[in-house]
Write a structure and sequence with these properties.
mainly alpha
Amino acid sequence: NRFPVSAFLIVYVTLSVFRSYSLWGAVENIIC
């Protein structure tokens, strides 16, 4: 069985959003 593409996309989008959110929080902490 091949790994479902939709599941991979969901995981990838979730990780990228979480990473960008954490990165933005770090930048905000540095600026403020």
